[in-house]
Specification:
The structure is a single chain. With about 80 residues, the protein is mainly alpha-helical. The chain has one domain (about 1-80): lambda repressor-like DNA-binding domains (434 Repressor (Amino-terminal Domain), Orthogonal Bundle). It is about 75% helix and about 0% strand. It is globular, with a radius of gyration of 12 Å.
């Protein structure tokens, strides 16, 4: 499905951008969030769409809210619609 691929891409872009803005490696973000590095890597490589509990664990590590991450993903999807 086209939308699934776009959602994977937008999520990947946002998670990587937020991680890099904090200056974290994937390992550091994993340690801060209590997630595995492979989970973060698969998300950033567009292989896995995170569940709500993953967003809830990532958000404090990235000093934001899960809803803010979702909002950024929505904005990224809107940019793709304009292309």
């Amino acid at each position: 499905m086209k939308y699934d691929a776009e959602l994977l891409e937008a999520t990947s872009i946002v998670i990587r951008r937020l991680r890099e803005e904090k200056g974290f490696s994937q390992e550091e973000l994993a340690a801060q969030s209590g997630l595995s590095r492979s989970m973060i890597d698969r998300t950033e490589r567009r292989e896995r769409l995170p569940s709500l509990d993953v967003f809830l664990k990532l958000a404090p590590a990235l000093e934001t809210k899960a809803s803010a991450i979702v909002s950024l993903i929505e904005k990224e999807l809107e940019k793709k619609e304009g292309d």
